[in-house]
Amino acid sequence: MKKSAWLPAVIAPVVVAGAVAAPVIANAANDPIAGTNPSAAAVIASIAKSSDAQYSGKLSQTSALGLPELPTGSGGSSLEGDAADVLGLLTASHTARVYVDGPDKQRVQLTQQLAEQDVVRNGSDVWTWDSKERTATHVTLPSDIAKDPRDGTTTPADIAEQAIDAITPTTTVSKPTEVSVAGHDAWQITLTPKSSDTLVGAVRLAVDQQTGLPLRASVEAAGADDPAVQVGFTSLDYGAPAARLFDFSPPSNAKVTEKDLSGAGSHTKGEHGDHRGTPSGDEPTFTGTGWSTIAELPAGTVDRSGLEGEASGLLDQLTKPVDGGRAVQTSLVSVYLTDDGRVLAGAVPVASLVDAAK
Fold first, then answer.
1. CA dihedral defined by 341, 347, 348, 353, rounded to 10 degrees?
2. How far is residue 284's CA from residue 307's CA, in Å, rounded to a whole number?
3. pLDDT of residue 279
4. Strand pairing partners for 173?
5. How are strands ordered across the β-sheet holding 294-297?
6. Residue pair 121/105 in contact by the 8 Å Cβ criterion
7. Strand, helix or coil at 352?
8. Averaged over 6-33, what is the pLDDT?
9. What CA–CA distance (Å, rounded) separates 123 from 121?
10. Cα(29)–Cα(227) distance, rounded to whole angstroms?
11. According to the model, what pLDDT value does residue 35 have?
12. Does the pLDDT value for residue 6 go beyond 90?
């Protein structure tokens, strides 16, 4: 895993950290949501029943975080490539086709100009494919794995589940209101932080009244009326997708990496030869609670000393000097790169990250 590939995974739970009080969820399992005036807890609890859903649909993601567009160039450094991946997700709009047949068969297709990226799960096999780079990754899941393994793919269900997982008493939850998403009746709830220390103003979740499937999720910055990030279905049809959509075989000239989740490392094969490695083990630690949670990666995660040319210029363009390092603050998230190589991120102002790093 690239060392900067943690960023989208860290940002997502930080942005939506905090939701409703836990006791209400426990009492909501039997509440109907297709009737009149369900509780917010019932709407959230209904999401669990969508795990066996079968559907095909089109997703749209929009982002307005205040980041500059990534400059084009051909510097070719690994950092620049990683930055392009991250900024592409955070600064541009995307559409994707989604196919789901229950909890263990999913396919997500992100189509760009003259290129396609796919994530395909079929039982214990997960494939990622990048047609532009001609690279594929095959992951064999342990038999006891239960979570959705989509690497870096964000859907309304992902954001909703992360919000629920971060339940604290730090959030005001609205009564559900009726909305329509992709032609389906939904209940929408709004989660508003009580804290004034976060950049997040509100998280809105729209859940299908009949199936419990999250149809749209959006995050608004404090003081803003329009979403800074929104992911939602623009079309959705229930029913089992064609079985062939979950079968994947890489082209014969592709570079294929086999991932061993048992800890034995990874194996890459293809035109560039045979390489083996072990996971880096760089996992974030967390401080703070709720909406003010800060994630920190240890020293050595980002090596800025060897940056040259376009990679160095890109970093300078995206960040500004602050006490002890460089930082960038978007409308929802701040990231702080310390001089000693640590990386801190959170849905808080840069000053909070600088204080946490001391």
1. -10
2. 23
3. 42
4. 191
5. 285-287, 294-297, 343-346, 334-338, 325-329, 320-322
6. yes
7. helix
8. 41
9. 6
10. 30
11. 66
12. no
Which distant-in-sequence residues (6+ apart) come within 8 Å of 259 by Cβ? 137, 138, 139, 140, 266
Beta strands in 197-254 (DSSP E): 200-208, 214-221, 227-238
Separation between Cα atoms, residue 123 and residue 257, nearest integer Å: 19
The answer to whether 301 touches 342, Cβ cutoff 8 Å, is yes
More confident residue, 121 or 27: 121
Query: Using only C-alpha atoms, what is the Rg of the chain?
Result: 21
CB atoms within 10 A of CB 327: 23
pLDDT tens per residue, range 304-333: 555 555 555 567 778 899 999 999 999 999
User: For 248-270, b where at least 16 C-beta lie within 10 A, e where not — what string?
Assistant: bebeeebbbbebeeeeeebebeb
Confidence of residue 18 (pLDDT cuts 50, 70, 90): very low
Nearest to 341 by CA among 304, 286, 312, 291: 304
Mean pLDDT of all residues in 12-30: 39
Structure tokens given for 252: 């014969």
Distance, CA of 139 to CA of 260 (rounded, Å): 7
